């Protein structure tokens, strides 16, 4: 199966989210933000009376009273993974293997930290020689193996030895590809946008090439009755 080509996915910036918050909630959003301030590291949330109300982060988000949402967790993971993989791409050992084995090394490095993974000389030597069985054995004979849940460590070592991603992760990729195809078809269906203008008594057909960019000259026609 062909891998999904990487794309530069641009999430909203902090400034854009701040403006959206202001648009959605009005001046109160800026009032509270100004008084609370924004803190990027966990801190003890203290009342003026000295009362400790728990650990907080961001703009007064109390982690003990209100855990983060799944949406926020996914955003954090997106940011973390982007920074993490950017560093991993600079490692020659990582660059030398196929996409499945890259995933296995990334999984190991995500739990250990890349500097510690780079101190597995026997495993790394086996990888560079493409002796995958020995690489797997060296992974098993390491502190990493003892620290991981059985399912995780077995899955990662199997990927490292075989160079093949398990079907369940390929199915997730296939679902994304299907979503992309469905979205493309929907864009094609919507490529003719009819814009009605009551004041002019006309409607305009705008022809799109499917990527949001309209082409051709809009044509005015009599408003249908």
Can you tell me about this structure?
The chain is α+β, with helices and mostly antiparallel strands and 225 residues long. It folds into three domains: 14-67, no CATH class; 81-165, Lysozyme; 170-222, no CATH class. The protein is built from eleven helices and six strands. It is extended, with a radius of gyration of 26 Å. It starts with 13 loop residues before the first helix and ends with a strand.
Multimeric status of the protein = single chain
Please state the overall shape, judged from the principal axes of the Cα atoms: extended
Distance between the termini: 51 Å
Question: What is the C-level CATH assignment of the largest domain?
Answer: Mainly Alpha
Quote the CATH topology of the largest domain. Lysozyme
Report helical residue fraction.
Answer: 40-55%
Number of strands: 6
Along the chain, the helix and strand elements come as HHEEEHHHHHHHHHEEE
Rg value: 26 Å
Count of helical segments? 11
Largest sheet: 3 strands, antiparallel
Strand order of the largest sheet: 1-2-3
CATH architecture of the largest domain: Orthogonal Bundle
**What is the average per-residue confidence, as pLDDT, rounded to a whole number?**
79
Structural class: alpha+beta
Low-pLDDT ranges: 1-5, 192-225
Strand content: 15-25%
Domain tally: 3
Please describe the structure with a list of short key phrases separated by commas or semicolons.
3 domains, Lysozyme, alpha+beta, disordered C terminus, single chain
SSE arrangement:
Layout: H1 14-25, H2 27-36, E1 39-46, E2 52-58, E3 61-62, H3 70-88, H4 92-95, H5 99-112, H6 114-117, H7 121-128, H8 132-140, H9 143-147, H10 150-162, H11 167-189, E4 192-197, E5 202-208, E6 214-222
Antiparallel strand pairs: 1-2, 2-3, 4-5, 5-6
Helix pairs in contact: 5-10, 7-8, 8-10
């Amino acid at each position: 199966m062909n891998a999904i080509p990487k794309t530069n996915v641009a999430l909203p910036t902090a400034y854009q989210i701040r403006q959206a918050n202001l648009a959605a909630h009005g001046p109160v959003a800026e009032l509270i933000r100004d008084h609370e301030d924004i803190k990027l590291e966990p801190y003890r949330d203290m009342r003026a009376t000295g009362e400790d109300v728990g650990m907080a982060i961001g703009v007064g988000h109390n982690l003990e009273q209100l855990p983060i949402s799944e949406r926020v967790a996914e955003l954090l993971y997106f940011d973390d993974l982007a920074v993490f993989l950017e560093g991993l791409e600079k490692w020659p050992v990582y660059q030398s293997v196929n996409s499945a084995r890259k995933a296995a090394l990334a999984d190991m490095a995500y739990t250990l930290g890349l500097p510690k993974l780079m101190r597995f000389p026997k495993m790394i030597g086996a990888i560079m020689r493409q002796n995958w069985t020995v690489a797997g054995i060296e992974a098993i004979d390491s502190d990493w193996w003892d620290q991981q849940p059985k399912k995780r460590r077995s899955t990662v070592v199997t990927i490292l030895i075989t160079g093949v991603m398990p079907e369940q992760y390929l199915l997730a990729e296939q679902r994304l590809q299907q979503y992309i195809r469905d979205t493309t078809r929907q864009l094609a269906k919507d490529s003719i946008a009819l814009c009605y203008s009551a004041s002019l008594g006309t409607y305009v057909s705008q022809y799109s090439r499917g990527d949001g960019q309209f082409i051709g000259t809009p044509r005015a026609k009599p408003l249908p009755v």
